[in-house]
């Protein structure tokens, strides 16, 4: 990668990271391009060069957020036990840390905007399809390797996303009836039953 191309990629990365932060903090409807430019440390003109509208910036920020989450969860998918990778994905589908809490705020902005804007609705449906493919891909790898029992992969993927959304919303609302541990345990219980896995959510292997 040339220095110029790398510099352009780094600038887009800074802008998208800043956009995720600002949208999560104040909401899409209140965001101004100037706010994102200031957070990213770039000029408004440079921001508009990369993203000419707020809507384009928002959709790119959502895609950026999901891509980073998926990359982290899949970092050793070829070598780690399939159950460990799947459990990691489940943790990344819930607001389990500050970064994922920010991601959830972005999703809430996406849902609200999708109800009022057809282009955003289509984008949201497509992004859910990517999430579904992410989850089902991990399940299929486990089945193909013999680590998981055969199952209806598409149906199980839809169930995982539906449960994660439901529990995630209640966690974001700080509903006292739901804790992160109980939410993870409940989602895993359905997954484990379908795939013939132990009922206890697997932990990350300790680093040596």
TrEMBL record:
<dbReference type="Pfam" id="PF13977">
    <property type="entry name" value="TetR_C_6"/>
</dbReference>
<keyword id="KW-0678">Repressor</keyword>
<dbReference type="Pfam" id="PF00440">
    <property type="entry name" value="TetR_N"/>
</dbReference>
<dbReference type="InterPro" id="IPR009057">
    <property type="entry name" value="Homeodomain-like_sf"/>
</dbReference>
<keyword id="KW-0805">Transcription regulation</keyword>
<dbReference type="InterPro" id="IPR001647">
    <property type="entry name" value="HTH_TetR"/>
</dbReference>
<dbReference type="InterPro" id="IPR036271">
    <property type="entry name" value="Tet_transcr_reg_TetR-rel_C_sf"/>
</dbReference>
<keyword id="KW-0804">Transcription</keyword>
<protein>
    <submittedName>
        <fullName>TetR/AcrR family transcriptional regulator</fullName>
    </submittedName>
</protein>
<keyword id="KW-0238">DNA-binding</keyword>
<dbReference type="InterPro" id="IPR050109">
    <property type="entry name" value="HTH-type_TetR-like_transc_reg"/>
</dbReference>
<dbReference type="InterPro" id="IPR039538">
    <property type="entry name" value="BetI_C"/>
</dbReference>
<feature type="DNA-binding region" description="H-T-H motif">
    <location>
        <begin position="32"/>
        <end position="51"/>
    </location>
</feature>
<feature type="domain" description="HTH tetR-type">
    <location>
        <begin position="9"/>
        <end position="69"/>
    </location>
</feature>
